[in-house]
Each structure stands twice: as structure tokens, then as C-alpha cells.
Amino acid sequence: MNGLAGPAWSAPVADRGGAADDPGSTPRLPVGGRPSGGATRSGPGATTSAAARMHAVADGRGGTALPVLAGEGPLALRSGRPDGGGARVMVVGAMSAPLGGDRLRITAEVGDDARLTVGSAAATVSLPGRDGEPAAYDVRLTVRAGGTLHWLPEPVIAAHRSDLRMTTRADLAHGARLLLRDEQILGRHAEPPGRLTTRLTVHLDGRPLLDQALSFGPGAPAGWNGPAVLHHYRAAGQLLLVDPSLTPDTLASRPLPADPAHGRAAITPLAGPAVLITALAVDGRRLRRLLDAGRAEIEEATGS
């Protein structure tokens, strides 16, 4: 979302405030909780620490309820219109974040047989702080047996001179389903990139499924912008699908049709009921097209 991520996430923090997809909805608070807004900036160079939590549970009537939905500072949460019995949450930025030195965290839990889709109102723009300290953004996702989580945040943009360390971790029970999108864009239009380090870790039924780290921008290991890694591309992303209906013979590892001048993508089945789509592109728009094309191909092959 992210992140959302820990491998993240995927990270669904908007750079500027925006409206929720359901203007009439209001945030839900945990029992004994307090309203959001505890994280503030007091002056130039000030940093903030903020957290957001959401918990989706099956309501016993074929739908999904959100007994916990609470955020603070730049992590404002809004519930949207239900989607086919599943709940929807939008992360809306209440102030610019992450800036250097900020500490942000999102936790999402999906209970047995519940369904949750999480998105963000705008891209997450990582901005430099006054002292050059890196920002940290952690995403923690948990999906119980029979639960489904679609974690689909907008991209993370590493603005010039920024430094963001992002981690996304997903813990999935046996029979859980996850669709996770993670996109990174190096720099805003016509500017050099900032530093961006991400790690995505996924465990399925207590066993490692995926553990991947990426590092781009000034100070990253040599070769990050060379022909063996990004080359001339400025956007990188991945789409992870974990679903019990996937079988080893459903899909084979292969590249997706693409114009190399604009981007490249590949589908890779993982050691489990999971498949990973990875893509590189010259910009975020073409990156999203490649990931969406890979998702459509998988859904056609599986009949989902």
C-alpha cells in the first residue's frame, strides 16, 4: 500500500491531502482509541513519527467489517464503498511525508475469510530533510487462513537528495491470498533521483516465500544504474500474487511482450502457490501498463 513494505508499499502515503473515495465515510477507531492527528511538525527540519492500523474481519453475513481503522499525522485512513463483500481502505496524506528523519509505520491484518483492498490517494514522495537523515517507512501485513488482501498503493517517488529506507513484510497463513504491488520511480520529472532502499519479505505458512532487497540512487552499490540493473530506465516495480489456485505447471518463467526502448517485464513462478511479475520502464505510466499486462495474463491462465 507500502510498501504499504516493510517489502513495501508498496507504500501508500500521499504527498498531499486528498479526498477519500467515499466522501461520506468516516474513520473507525479501535475500542478505547483516540482520534488521529497525534503526529505534527513544529518547525523547519522537524521530523515526525506516525502509525496507522487497520483490521478487517468477516462479518458473518458474507461481508467484511473494519473494527480497527486508525491513523495519525500523514497516515490518514478512510474507508470506501464495499467491493463484492470486501472492505476498501484508502490512505490519504494529511501532510507531506516522508521527510528525512521521519518514522512511519502501517500495520494491516486480515482475519479468516475476510477480504480487504488497500490503495492510496496519490504517490508517496520521499523528500529530503534538513540534516540529511534517512526516513524510515515500515509496512507489516498479516493475512489469516482464507483471507484475501489486495495491497495496491501508488508508487514511491525518490525526489532529489532524499533518502528513504522502506521495508515491507507479509505473513500469510496457509490458504491466504495476497496481491501486492510495489513500484519505485527515481526522481520527479527531469530531476536526479534520491536514495531509495527497499526490502520485501513474504512468509507463507511460516516458511520464507520471497526476500528481495533493492537499492537505487546516490550511495547505492556500484552498478545500480548500469546495463545489468536499471540501465536507462527510471521506474522499477513488481507485482506479487499468492493464491492457493496457482500450481507449478500453471505458468512458466518467461518475458512479457514489450518494447525494450520503453520497458521490460518477466513472469517468474515462485516455490509455492505464487508468481512474481517484475518490470522496468522509462516512467511510471509504462511501468503500470507492464504490471497490469502481466496480471491479466496470469488471471487468464488461471481463470480467476
UniProtKB/TrEMBL annotation:
Major localisation: cytoplasm
Membrane-crossing segments per the record: none
Function: Required for maturation of urease via the functional incorporation of the urease nickel metallocenter.
Keyword Ribosomal protein: no
Subunit comment: UreD, UreF and UreG form a complex that acts as a GTP-hydrolysis-dependent molecular chaperone, activating the urease apoprotein by helping to assemble the nickel containing metallocenter of UreC. The UreE protein probably delivers the nickel.
Keywords tagged on the record: Chaperone, Cytoplasm, Nickel insertion
Family as reported in the entry's similarity comment: Belongs to the UreD family.
Cellular component annotations (GO), alphabetically ordered: cytoplasm
Cited InterPro entries: UreD
Protein name per Swiss-Prot or TrEMBL: Urease accessory protein UreD
Alphabetical list of Pfam families matching this protein: UreD
